[in-house]
Amino acid sequence: MIELKDITKVFRHKNRITTALSGVSLYVPKGKIVGVIGESGAGKSTLIRCVNLLERPSSGEIYVDGQNLTQMSESQLAKARRNIGMIFQHFNLLSSRTVFDNIAFPLELDKTPKSEIIIRVKELLKLVGLEEKANDYPSKLSGGQKQRVAIARTLASNPKVLLCDEATSALDPATTRSILSLLKEINKRLDITILLITHEMDVVKEICDEVAVISDGQLIEQGTVADIFSHPKAALTKQFIASSLHMEIPVDYQENLVASPQAGKHPLLQLEITGQSVDAPVLSEVARLFNIDSNIINARMDYVGGMKFGVMLVEFISSAENENRAIEFLKSKNIKVEVLGYV
Amino acid sequence: MSDSMIEILIKGTWETIVMTFVSGFFGFVLGLPIGVSLFITSKGQIRDNKSINKTLAFFVNIFRAIPFIILIVWMIPFTRLIVGTSIGVEAALVPLSIGAAPFIARMVENSLLEVPSGLVEASRAMGATPFQIIRKVLLPEAMPSLINCASITLITLVGYSAMGGAVGAGGLGQVGYQYGYVGYDTTVMNVVLVLLVVLVFIIQTLGNFISKKVDHR
């Protein structure tokens, strides 16, 4: 549906030349949600802005729905853009228009008759759940509501693809989840292909089918989300996955923590379960085999692309010998075990 | 103060109001497109064009540099060509409009700069043409600021029109000059002053009110 072929973007400032993108090729299949993840300054924003030619690439070709956008004239491009929706980190709603008129905006651009606009806008307001806000101005809405209006607005012209430029980065976690589930619903119900960029692995994990990792203007790794999570190759990818699985040791445990084994203290472990780990009820197994009492302090498990991922802080309580055997047993199941200390 | 003097003052006030608002209108007719052009041809905007931008800025700067009293006199041949005379309210409208236009152009440019660039970007992404962006995004979004710019312009024009009065434009300026200054009538002078101050206050209050009314930011 979207195909980027060998895109390069070079910015020239007076005597400085910066390469924002070099040789980026990306394919987004119809009906899929593809995420591009990268740190700030990696070129992800330039990448998504190149897709609808808000930023014209220095070289390379862009196909959306079979049309080569890079060869179009300005007026052809304006038409083609009506098939490409886009939402932004800062929503970009028109402050001088009500919610209703904001959503009507792309329809006005298309010179849609008034009566049709009314019907269509009402439909969209219902879709995003903001029927009673129709006559409010954007300044009265919360961040999540603003993004819903922006989504309704971009859907008004029935786009085939939707570009999301850090669409949830300005929102709190709960609102982020509700916007992501709305995007997922749009993808499924309206069969709209979505390309999103983000710096949060959680977003990718939540809704993406495929993911590409961008660093210094180059795509360093791409594949299905399950693949990337289970076999991350690049260090940066591993870092992104780790950051989404990061877990803090609670303060009072931190205070009692010592580095080496001591009588009366038991190991505090961080267990990382990845796609490579053997899918088995390991905690009850160690309990049975090695007589371990496990005390779970913090745990987070996710189910991504048919595989379990997660991280767990757990205290193993038994004899020192049994504790060590249990750790070896977990390692043999391809679970990453780190002894954080003894409590 | 005699009845005839009061009549003269009323007529003068009316002429000042006409000169201010009519030349303000024509000033905007000329200045708004120039201001919009200045904005859209500047760097990174929707019609980025260095040479057009530089040329426009050059002429705007020249006209802004000419003191208004000189502009009136300098423009007399042109004024005669357009309205057939160089004396009276109609004649004053020509230099007033042309004097206000570059001033308005710069203020319009500044108002448009305040519109967040993300809005233009979003409109481009929705397939808006440059004309649609100007009409449906830039101008409505800058409206509160444009209204303020209009009140500042009108107030400046009250002053300009009074200045024009000294060289035969009519209005309160002429009344104050002719009867107050030349005729040594302090009362007339002070009444003219108060009338001008009241006019300025009304314009400013009205401008603030409307600007607030259209501001939904």
UniProtKB/TrEMBL annotation, chain A:
GO terms for molecular function: ABC-type D-methionine transporter activity; ATP binding; ATP hydrolysis activity. It holds the Pfam family NIL. Residues 2-241 form the ABC transporter domain. It comes from the Bacteria. Keywords: Amino-acid transport, ATP-binding, Cell inner membrane, Cell membrane, Membrane, Nucleotide-binding, Translocase, Transport. InterPro entries: AAA+_ATPase, ABC_MetN_proteobac, ABC_transporter-like_ATP-bd, ABC_transporter-like_CS, ACT-like_dom_sf, MetN_ABC, MetN_ABC_transporter-like, NIL_domain. The keyword Cell membrane applies. The keyword ATP-binding applies. GO terms for cellular component: Gram-negative-bacterium-type cell wall. This is D-methionine transport system ATP-binding protein. It comes from Dysgonomonas alginatilytica.
UniProtKB/TrEMBL annotation, chain B:
It comes from the Bacteria. One of its GO terms (biological process) is D-methionine transmembrane transport. InterPro entries: AA_ABC_Transporter_Permease, MetI-like, MetI-like_sf. Residues 13-204 form the ABC transmembrane type-1 domain. SUPFAM superfamilies: MetI-like. Gene3D superfamilies: MetI-like (1.10.3720.10). The keyword Ubl conjugation does not apply. One of its GO terms (cellular component) is plasma membrane. It is found in: Cell membrane. It is a multi-pass membrane protein. Pfam families: BPD_transp_1. The chain crosses the membrane at residues 17-40, 52-76, 82-105, 145-167, 187-210. Keywords: Amino-acid transport, Cell membrane, Membrane, Transmembrane, Transmembrane helix, Transport. Belongs to the binding-protein-dependent transport system permease family. CysTW subfamily. Part of the binding-protein-dependent transport system for D-methionine and the toxic methionine analog alpha-methyl-methionine. Probably responsible for the translocation of the substrate across the membrane. This is D-methionine transport system permease protein MetI.
